[in-house]
Design a protein that fits this description.
Layout lengths: L4 H4 L2 E3 L3 H20 L8 E6 L1 H6 L5 H9 L9 H14 L1 E4 L3 E4 L2 H4 E3 L11 E8 L2 E12 L2 E4 L22 H11 L3 H9 L5 H24 L14 H10 L1 H4 L5 H18 L3 E3 L9 H12 L5 H21 L4 H4 L5 H15 L4 H13 L17 H21 L8 H14 L12 H4 L4
The chain binds iron/sulfur cluster (SF4).
């Protein structure tokens, strides 16, 4: 199965695609279902139970806010962060919620949103159950799973990793890196052209380009906003935003920068930090492929736009289409969820996608692109997910800066070779999947291991 570019890259809000965007979407789907069945107006109470990783790190990942917004009928792609703050404030102060934006019921967050930290559902760690009541009688109850990158499965869709593209009939069906390389060789197409040909079955070329431009613009706007915001990130860890200070320093030393070959890395670091600080603050970001790893692709894309001698709009499209093709392979054959396979599934996948995108935009061959994607993941294998305080801040923000630099390094290594290499992308994807299976649950977005328990609080 092939995931669309527009499924991998979704515009939404922080701090987490699986713990914020997914639960918001699931809650919105539940109340819409009630409305479609004509049951909404008879509902007197809705209870939300959160399980597994959602229960363990949901508070830090703003899952509680996301549930309130989703039950109010809000969806991640449409919501504005400031308006969301006001709506949550209103629900909490009035102890009342308007289900699907229309039917008002009493709402007591203490008893109506329950974090069940002892229970994990078998199919996926990010599970939630919504139950609607008429007085004390349940009228509807449904389980949803947030499976990564903001995607949601309801209980009838178990077994499909990709509900959105399940029925997508494409001219170039690829399930592996080997498939991509074979199609590219047989048809004389680049990986971006294969992806674009598939997208054409859903929309015209012009709409595809406009959609990609909107993604690139949203990424760029997030960088620019993050650079300007100062202060302490929310959540209680007292993590200070670094992007504005680094930006000011870089602007001050422009002359000296000419003799410092590593200045470019400072800019790459800055752009990634800016995005992930925005994400941690609940700002508008693009999943790439997740929110926790949202800084890598934008940072490397801007590196391409600023520093590649022949950078242009076509190169940006090539970059993002190629990155999406690689992300699709990870999504279908392994996972892009930190709660399922650790941070290798988020920062590792983003690094692989960005490395492939940059190599393609630089004019690399499909073999070199596949090589770059493989390098980008190989050196992230085993990366654990251990967010301190359940917040998407430490180690997440800095990890994106390191991941962006690593992606450039992977692209550079690939472009220096001819694309032949010992470990294939498919082998590394399978290794990532198996490593994720072997990984202790403690290191899968539970905040029960690693830095999350070993960081000494001052
Ligand atoms: S450690 Fe990685 S996977 Fe875990 S929340 Fe942070 S960015 Fe996401």
């Amino acid at each position: 199965m092939v995931a669309s570019t527009f499924e991998l890259f979704k515009i939404g809000v922080g701090p987490s695609s699986s713990h914020t965007m997914g639960p918001m979407l699931a809650a919105a789907m539940f109340v819409e279902r009630l409305a479609d069945a004509g049951q909404l107006d008879e509902v007197t109470r809705v209870e939300t139970l959160l399980f597994g990783s959602l229960a363990l790190t949901g508070k830090g990942h703003a899952t509680d806010r996301a549930i309130l917004l989703g039950l109010s009928g809000q969806r991640p792609e449409h919501i504005e962060p400031d308006a969301a703050d006001m709506l949550v404030e209103e629900i909490r102060s009035c102890s009342e919620i308007r289900l699907n934006g229309s039917h008002a019921i009493p709402f007591d967050e203490e008893t109506d949103v329950i974090f069940d930290q002892k229970k994990r559902l078998d199919f996926h760690s990010n599970a939630m159950r919504f139950t609607a009541y008429l007085d004390d009688q349940p009228v509807e109850s449904r389980v949803y799973y947030s499976v990564g990158g903001g995607a949601v499965l309801d209980e009838d869709q178990i077994g499909s990793n990709n509900p959105e593209s399940g029925l997508w009939d494409v001219p170039y069906r690829f399930c592996s890196g080997a498939d991509l390389l074979r199609i590219a060789a047989d048809e004389g197409l680049s990986i971006a052209e294969i992806m674009r040909a598939n997208e054409r079955t859903r929309q015209e070329d012009e709409a595809i380009s406009a959609g990609i431009r909107a993604i690139a613009d949203a990424m760029s706007a997030c960088i620019d906003r993050g650079i300007l915001q100062d202060g302490i990130l929310p959540g209680g860890l007292r993590v200070k935003r670094r992007a504005p200070l680094i930006h000011a320093r870089l602007m001050e030393r422009q002359e000296r920068a000419l003799s410092d070959p590593l200045t470019i890395l400072d800019w790459v670091n800055l752009w990634a930090l800016a995005v992930n600080e925005e994400n941690a603050a609940g700002g508008k970001v693009v999943t790439a492929p997740t929110n926790g790893a949202a800084g890598i692709v934008p940072s490397v894309l801007r590196f391409y736009e600023r520093f590649a001698p022949k950078a242009d709009a076509a190169g940006v499209e090539t970059f993002l289409l190629t990155a999406a093709a690689i992300g699709s392979l990870f999504k279908e054959n392994a996972s892009i969820s930190g709660a399922e396979v650790g941070c290798q599934g988020e920062v590792g996948v983003a690094c692989s996608m960005a490395a492939a995108g940059l190599t393609a935009a630089w004019g690399g061959t499909p073999l070199q692109v596949e090589n770059a994607a493989e390098i980008g993941m190989e050196h992230n294998l085993g990366l654990t997910c251990d967010p301190v305080g359940g917040l998407v801040q430490v180690p997440c923000i800095e990890r994106n800066a390191v991941g962006a630099v690593k992606a450039i390094e992977a692209a550079r290594l690939a472009i220096l070779g001819d694309g032949t290499h010992r470990v294939s992308l498919d082998e590394v994807i399978e290794t990532m999947r198996k490593t994720g299976l072997d990984m202790s649950e403690r290191y899968k977005e539970t905040s029960q291991g690693g830095l999350a328990v070993n960081l000494v609080e001052c």
